[in-house]
Amino acid sequence: MNKKAYSDITYPILEINLKKVYENVESIVELCNNQGISVAGVVKGFNAIPEVSMQFVNAGCTYIASSRMDQIIKLKEYGLNKPFMMLRIPMFSEIKKLVEFAQVSLNSEMETLNMIQKECELQGKKHKVILMIDLGDLREGVYDQDEIINLAMHVENHLKNVELYGIGTNLGCYGAIVPTIENLGRLCSIAEIIESKIKRRLDIISGGATSSLPLIIDGKMPKRINNLRVGEGILVAEDLEKFWGYDMKHMHKDTFVLKAQIVEIKDKPTHPIGEVFIDAFGSKPTYEDNGIRKRALLAVGKQDFGLHDKLIPQKQGVKIIGSSSDHLIVDIEDCDIEPKLGDILGFLMYYPPMMYLTENPSIPKVFI
Ligand SMILES: *Cc1c(COP(=O)(O)O)cnc(C)c1O
Fold this sequence. Notes:
The protein is 31% helix and 23% strand. The chain has twelve helices and 16 strands.
């Protein structure tokens, strides 16, 4: 590895390739737009780093979305100029900021909607809402069909400054429920019941997140769905391939790369010596005995990336075997060219480490 080029950098660092992020956003936007679907680019997974969020704007997302108001405010102050969509059902305590900084929000509670109306009057503003239906994933959203219709009628008829922009759903988060023609079809038919009552078309029928992309790829997305809110599928593009079996070869997976430095290389037994009790995080681990193997210890740990099994070594032959708060242990016995002390190893990642690493102020972010 190229040590010299980085001699003035202290590791670990997070390398972010802005061009690759841009190209990933562009692919997903094109895939969706071709089927009449707008994309809300979800920036919460990388803590809404402004430079990265800009790629979402430049590559054609219609909305910039986050579940946290502080991220939306940060981007607004950075000068990013797109409609902002607030993803998490708003707290009472953030309604003032919501009305000031976000144009659209997802909602499910009448009392909250009434408060948004009051705040809009105070600020002399309007605000668009997408009412959320729970189709079985059991996180947010109205579960009962009559209740969502009542809620829609309430917004339409009684809240002057709150515009009933559309309806939406979220799947694949808590209940890990798969979006299908059936459940999203139900979303569309509820939308049509509401439309017949309000005598106009809804602007938005938002059919979920990354986990809804397979329906688009297969050409099976119900026709009335015209919006998705996508984060993971754009950023690390690992889930659709690994968990769903889709060919995502055209998507870059090395948009975010963790680089860490080796501080020790030793031959050691693979099974710990002595009585196994609980590890640094209170769980009782089990170990396979594979005899003596060469291992490298890297100066990066759970405090930085959260979960080591969600990291993917870039170098062939490197295998992650464990971690503690400040260390990552890898097996390097099978490497063709064995890494040396002081070398830098790179790791691709799934969503959770991206979340932790981008949030961590002690990890420098290096843009390429
Ligand atoms: C996080 C979030 C998304 C985006 O999910 P991905 O799996 O990253 O695409 C969409 N909608 C809501 C409500 C969310 O909270």
